[in-house]
Amino acid sequence: IAGYPGEAATAGGFYNRYCNANTCTAGNQGNLTLTGSLMENMRGALGKFFSLSTWVGYNRVINYDPRLGSHPPPFYPVTGNYTIIAWDDQGQ
Known about the structure:
two-stranded parallel ribbon; single chain; mainly beta; disordered N terminus
């Protein structure tokens, strides 16, 4: 979890608390860059909207590491080895 020391980003968002609509724009917040992979239960915001044209936050840059496909780290969820244990047809 990304955040300030002692603060958990558990409320669905992460933003720069030192900036507000009058002092910061999207262009000068910088990037939150992740290299590797990302697992999320729910994609949260990396900013805070004040209006349709004004927000404070970070640009999200995710650089997937293709080596994870063939060499995942220990205990990392893998794909391609699923077994169907139940099936329920929801119909039309």
